């Protein structure tokens, strides 16, 4: 009998493959969730933007703050960011590399814009910053060019 380099039948598979596939499953799940969050944030951003554009009385400033913009200008900012976020979320779901890159870049812009939006909607701005951080992490954690759904 000659010695072969293949492991005998019934032997356990290497553990790195199992933990690697588990890690990939978690990362893919995080990417799907990030894509859905981008879609949701996009829809809410569009509504938030329309509300800011339509009537300056919808949002009130809480206190004195360095970043003072007219709420109509904020409405346009949120409307544009929301539309782009929706498109990026759709691209991430379809497995497009541009959607991933746009999602990460847009999440950075959303975090900055919502930091500056704090005096108008403090609770929602903090929640949106947290969502943006999660989106950045999850889109950077998993790599792949295949559709997620």
UniProtKB/TrEMBL annotation:
Region (Disordered): 1-23
Protein name: DUF7144 domain-containing protein
Alphabetized UniProt keyword annotations: Membrane, Transmembrane, Transmembrane helix
Protein's UniProt keywords contain tRNA-binding: no
Record has Transmembrane helix as a keyword: yes
Biased composition (Low complexity): 1-19
Alphabetized InterPro entries for the sequence: DUF7144 (IPR055568)
Lineage of the organism: Bacteria, Bacillati, Actinomycetota, Actinomycetes, Kitasatosporales
TM region positions: 25-53, 73-93, 100-117, 123-141
Ranges of residues in domain DUF7144: 31-143
Pfam families, per database record: DUF7144 (PF23636)
Superkingdom of the source species: Bacteria
